[in-house]
Amino acid sequence: MTATVHALRYQRSSALRPGRLEFATSGGATPHGAVRHPRFFDGALRHPDAAAAALLAVADVAATRYHRPGGGVSLDPVVTADGDRLRFESFSGCGGVHARLDVLPEGLDGAPTGHGTTNVDVNAPLREALRLRAPGERLTLAVGAEEMTVGTAAGTTVERRVPLPPRWLKGFAETQLLTARFDPRARLTAAEAVRFLRALPVTGRGTVRWVVPAGPALRAASRPGPGAVCLPGPERLAALRPLLRHATALRVYAPPGTPAEPTASAWELAFPGGRLTLTLSPDSSRGFSGEGGLLDLLAQDAPAADADALAGLLAWDPRIDPADLAADSGLTPERVRAALAHLAGAGQLGYDLAEAAHFHRRLPYDADRTEHRNPRLRTARALLAADAVGPVAGDIRVVAVGDHAHHVRVGTDGTALGCTCRWWARHRGGRGPCSHVLAVRMLAGGAGTSGGSGGSGGSEGSEGLEGEGPK
C-alpha cells in the first residue's frame, strides 16, 4: 500500500529571540479556509518557565522512540487554536505515546487567540535555546509569524520540508476514542506527584507495572486487581520529570472496571496556566495507529452529507457535545456517532480528559481517504463484494479467503464474536476486529460494500507496530 506523506514547508525556522518565542507554521486550516502560514497567537506566556518546559516535553516525546530506539522521527508538533487556548500535540517516534500540552486561557496574555490547526517547527536550535533560557525571563509567544526574520546579512528565507507521518493521523483517531472511555482514577498532590514520578525508572525494557490509589498517593501492586491502574512502560513518563518543580497536581485516567491484562492509561500533570497529558499505549512495543477501535463505527455507511453537516458545526469548538450536535443538525444520535467516527478518522476530533469532552482540530489529510488508511475495513468490504461470507451454520459463518477458510463464531443475534485467523488468535479482539469478523458484522448490520477497492482478504494489511509492516 502506498503511504501518503504530507510535506511541511516553513517560511523560516522557529527561534527563541530575546524574550520572544517565535514558532514558524506550515500550511493549516482556519475558519477562512486553507492558509499557507496561519497566525494564531501573539502575546506573552504568564508562566514562562513552566510553559517552556512543557513545550520541550512535547518536542522530546516526538524525538523519542521508546521501542527499538533509532530511526526517523517527526519533530513538528500539531498546534490547534480554538479561540481561548493553544494545544500542542505529538506522538513518539514509535507511535506508543501521545503527548498534548494545553496552554489554557489563564496561561496566555495577549491578543485574542485565533482558530485553526497547523504544524509548528520545533528545531534543534530552538530546543537548545529553551533549555538554556534564564529562569524567570519574560517569554512572549508568536504562533504563525509570517514576517521575514533575517538571520544573516543576506536575509535569506529558510524553508524546510519534513514529513507528517500518516500513522499520526490514525494515532489521533484512536487515542480520542480510547481516552473518551477513561475514568478519573487518582489525583495526587504536587508533593505526591513528585515523589511518585521521581521513583520511576527513566530507562527500561517496556516492563508493565500496576499501581493502586491509596489515599493521596499511589502504591505499587503486584498484579491487576480491583482499583488497579496499569502503568505500561513506566520509563515513558520520564518526559514529565522536567516539569515537576512547576507541578500542582497529577491526575491519572484509565478504563473503568478491573483490568485483566495491560491497558492504556493517561497521566496529566497540571501546572500554572496549563497541563501536559501523556497517554501510554498498553505496551511500549504497541503503537496507537493499529488499535482498530474505530473500525466498527467506520464500517457503518454514514452519508457524506452527515459528516459535512457536522464538520460545519464543529468550528474549532474546545468542548463538543454530541447531544448538542444532534439537536443542531437534526440528525439522530446514532447518525451523529457514525458521522463523528468518520470525522475522527480524518483527524478532526481530539478528546480532553480534564474537560471530559471532545474538541475540534483539522489536519491536512483528505477525509475521503479514511478507508484507504484502514486496510482491515477495505479488506472486509472486498470480502463482502466477493460474496466470501457464507450463511450461518449453527453458530459459525465461514469466510472464504482464496483456497482456505476462516470460521467466525456468531451469537444468537448474528453478531460476530471471534475468528480462527491468526490476528484474532494473537489479539482476541483487543486491537479491534479482524477483517473476517468485521465483514460478518457489516453483513449482519446491513452495511454496504461502497467505497471498497482492492484487498485480497488474506492478511490484515499494514496495520502493524507503529503503522508499519503486516500483522
Automatic annotation (TrEMBL):
User: Where is the SWIM-type domain positioned along the sequence?
Assistant: 406-445
Which Pfam families does the annotation name?
SWIM
Q: Which portions of the sequence form the region Disordered?
A: 448-471
Q: Where is the composition biased (Gly residues)?
A: 448-461
Q: Which UniProt keywords apply?
A: Metal-binding, Zinc, Zinc-finger
Listed InterPro entries: Znf_SWIM
**Does this UniProt record's set of keywords contain Zinc-finger?**
yes
Top-level taxon: Bacteria
Q: Which GO terms describe its molecular function?
A: zinc ion binding
**Protein name per Swiss-Prot or TrEMBL:** SWIM-type domain-containing protein
